[in-house]
Design a protein that fits this description.
By secondary structure, the chain is α+β, with helices and mostly antiparallel strands. The chain has ten helices and 20 strands. Helices cover 21% and strands 28% of the residues. The N and C termini lie far apart (80 Å).
Length: 456
């Protein structure tokens, strides 16, 4: 026990008794002075060790707080595979329709049941690689399939009673130099229509087909044996290599004999809008003769734009902004025609005025909406056209919505009531198609480009 020999007195203040930085709070930590002060460098080591422990405790507390915050968040559900199925070749794509899973393979098509993942049918007659597939349930154990192969050909199938029935190759032509490739394929809700966006060497166009799904059911019920024999493996196993080579050279002729179903009907062939050019009329009187409306006054000499005026305007523009055009490396060529389009199938609404002579069925699309890349116009075309009319190579849109900026992308809600248009100026407009007026217009920050838009 330490006992003081002299009474406790308060010493007079002096500079030598001031606490140094390295001895701060030492008296408070050991008021009875039972511990001797550590000499250097041990005092510095003690401070560094304590600093390490304090930093470690701060890190531990911070991590514990983050762990508690993560526990409060909703954790995503982890899904693990419950079964697997073996395929022949390489699987490129798949589509689910009803109780079947259709898989596009490097050698054809295969169908599997969702319940047990067993293969029920396969089609590999032509040994073609399927790159994209779209399927839709038509009811009564029928499914329509649109498959796109590696060459850009669109194969139309009908799957009935666990067998594939090839109906037609939509863009097959005899002259290989005129062959077109498929860019996009869309099936309408209900399977009444199919849209195929095709692209050739110098042009692109959109084809809309009407699918006779009711006729397919009647024809399959009349001749079930012919449809069931199209995809039998026993039949394919008897073919020789020469037969397979002939099928690859001419797939249409090899399947036309087996296809007993009605062919789809081409309704529309929509082409991109042509660039603006001068008037082809020699005088305003010639232009007025083509107009049936009698509500115009004057001869229109002040409103006629000739080709020479366009050429003069372009020459002035290029001479004024020559430095900018040379810096950007602009090619002196004509305006390129758009090569890609976005289209949607639309149900009947106020924006699609259907005449009384045309029948409208509930749940069946009444028109399509199309907008081409770089175009300001949102075009609507009616699908309820009489079959007696010939397919116009360049039909005029029934409704045109001009926008302030080129349309970048669009989307239609699952209920087909709302339409979203996103322009290149980062403006999004939501339309109510049933009422026919916009619900909201939202402008995003400048220098933002909207590439895609979806409804959740």
């Amino acid at each position: 026990v330490y006992i003081r020999k002299h009474p406790l007195e308060i010493p007079p203040p002096s500079e030598k008794d001031w606490l140094k930085d390295d001895e701060e709070d030492f008296f408070l930590q050991d008021p009875d002075r039972k511990r001797d002060a550590l000499p250097q460098p041990f005092r510095m080591i003690n401070k560094l060790v304590m600093l390490v422990f304090e930093n470690a405790m701060e890190i531990i507390e911070r991590r514990e707080m983050l762990r508690e915050v993560q526990k409060l968040k909703v954790q995503p559900t982890k899904c693990f595979p419950t079964a697997e199925f073996q395929v022949t070749g390489r699987a490129n794509c798949l589509a689910v329709s009803g109780k079947y899973i259709f898989v596009g393979l490097s050698v054809g098509l295969s169908a599997f049941e969702v319940s047990d993942c067993k293969e029920v049918c396969a089609w590999d007659a032509v040994k073609t690689e399927i790159c994209a597939i779209h399927a839709l349930d038509l009811g009564n154990e029928r499914h329509v399939l649109l498959a796109v192969d590696e060459m850009g050909l669109v194969w139309l199938f009908c799957f009935h009673k666990e067998s594939f029935v090839l109906i037609k190759i939509l863009n097959e032509v005899e002259d290989i130099g005129k062959r077109s490739t498929c860019v996009e394929v869309v099936l309408s809700p209900g399977g009444d229509y199919a849209g195929v966006l095709l692209q050739g060497n110098t042009k692109a166009w959109l084809e809309i087909y009407r699918l006779p799904k009711d006729s397919w059911l009647k024809e399959m019920e009349k001749s079930p044996g012919a449809a069931a024999g199209l995809a039998c493996r026993e039949r394919r196993s008897s073919w020789t290599s020469a037969d397979i080579f002939l099928l690859q050279e001419s797939p249409v002729s090899a399947n036309k004999a087996d296809a007993k179903l009605s062919l789809p009907v081409l309704l529309l062939k929509v082409k991109p809008p042509k660039p603006i050019t001068g008037s082809s009329f020699k005088s305003p009187l010639d232009a007025l003769k083509k107009v049936d409306d009698d509500s115009m006054l004057g001869l229109g000499y002040n409103h006629l734009i000739k080709d020479s005026q366009w050429e003069q305007h372009e020459a002035i523009f290029r001479s004024t902004y020559r430095d900018y055009l040379e810096a950007e490396g602009e090619r002196e060529s004509k305006e390129q025609i758009p090569r890609h389009a976005t289209f949607h199938f639309l149900l009947p609404s106020w924006i699609l005025h259907v005449g009384p002579e045309m029948k409208v069925q509930p749940g069946v699309p009444a028109g399509i909406s199309v907008h081409w890349d770089g175009s300001h116009n949102f075009c609507l075309y009616l699908l309820n056209r009489p079959l007696k009319e010939k397919v116009d190579s360049d039909p005029k849109p029934d409704v045109v919505w001009p926008c302030a900026a080129p349309i970048a992308c669009s989307a239609v809600s699952s209920c087909s009531r709302y339409l979203a248009l996103a322009c290149e100026d980062a403006t999004i407009t939501i339309w109510d198609k049933h009422l026919g007026y916009p619900l909201s217009v939202t402008a995003i920050l400048e220098e933002r480009l909207i590439r895609s838009i979806y409804f959740l």
